[in-house]
């Protein structure tokens, strides 16, 4: 096509387009591992099932690319749930009251209550019961290992700050606390009982030698 002054103009949509169109096209963010993770996280927070086929369709990539980015569905779910669990635990620690064992019990109880009260998490547990227990409470993923490590770090910090004496080595104590938390968070799936943060608090208190009425 020729313009008024004889200059050649490119047809819209032909070839590579204009310099501006090429710059706009190149500036469009391309999907990557983080894009896939964020999409899965939004889906999970909405209380919906994280489906790999849905991710493939949304991201417009092939299966091999998606699996190279995020691993299999179990690995992706574990990462999504951990991305929500870690800040929840840190917030519980930051908001905890008291000192020494009382602060530890308050922090862990706040964490347990936050998990129990999270609607999106409850929806996931009801939707994928066996898979959830396997991913979150066994070595099938790194989730439980990470949680034990977070609690262990917290216990070590409290010991350094107030000179606490624990009834068990710190790693063992962190593991026991994790298992107690799991017992009450997943009570409905394990024993058919109602998840109960107050009962978890009583168990943590007994473990750390806090008597009735000594909570902050």
UniProtKB/TrEMBL annotation:
Upper lineage: Bacteria, Bacillati, Actinomycetota, Actinomycetes, Pseudonocardiales
Domain QsdR TetR regulatory C-terminal: 99-209
One Pfam family recorded for the sequence: TetR_C_36
The organism of origin for this protein: Haloechinothrix salitolerans
Source organism, top-level taxon: Bacteria
Renumbered residue ranges of the record's region Disordered: 1-27
InterPro entries per record: TetR_C_36
Protein name: QsdR family transcriptional regulator
